[in-house]
Amino acid sequence: MSKRYFITLPDGIAKALEEWAAREDNKPTTLAAYLVEQAVRQAIDEGKTPPPWEISNFDQSQAGKGGDA
Q1: Which of 5, 31, 43, 66 is the most exposed place for a label (fewest CB within 10 A)?
Q2: What is the rounded CA–CA span in Å between residue 17 and residue 29?
Q3: Using 50, 70 and 90 to split pLDDT, how confident is the model at 59?
Q4: CA dihedral sign, ordered 2, 68, 7, 32
Q5: Domain residue spans in the chain?
Q6: Which of 68, 46, 44, 65 has the alpha carbon at shortest distance from 55?
Q7: Is residue 25 a contact partner of residue 18, using CB atoms and an 8 Å limit?
Q8: In angstroms, rounded to a whole number, what is the distance separating the alpha carbons of residues 1 and 56?
């Protein structure tokens, strides 16, 4: 299951994201989701946040879905 978040970006960052996505023939929202996922995975690897399965309300059925964790 996925969860939606609504974020606000500074104009310059939004423009850069749009340009980056366009150059990769992608949507800005898809690229942003990928970037957030990668940042969270890195934070988990660096011990900045616990992996989802160590969080009390984590749904165990989601473990291992969506790529390598």
Answers
A1: 5
A2: 9
A3: low
A4: negative
A5: 11-53
A6: 44
A7: no
A8: 17
Look over the chain and give the mean of its residue pLDDT values, rounded to a whole number.
87
Q: Count CA atoms within 13 Å of residue 6 on its CB side.
A: 0
Q: Are 62 and 69 in contact (CB under 8 A)?
A: no
Does pLDDT of 50 surpass 90? Answer: yes
Closest to 2 (Cα-Cα) out of 54, 37, 40, 50: 37
Alpha helices in the chain (DSSP H): 11-23, 28-45
CA-based torsion, 26, 18, 38, 61: positive or negative? negative
The encoded tokens of residue 69 equal 């964790």
Is the CB of residue 9 less than 8 Å from the CB of residue 35? Answer: no
Angle at CA of residue 46, ends 40 and 47, nearest 5°: 90
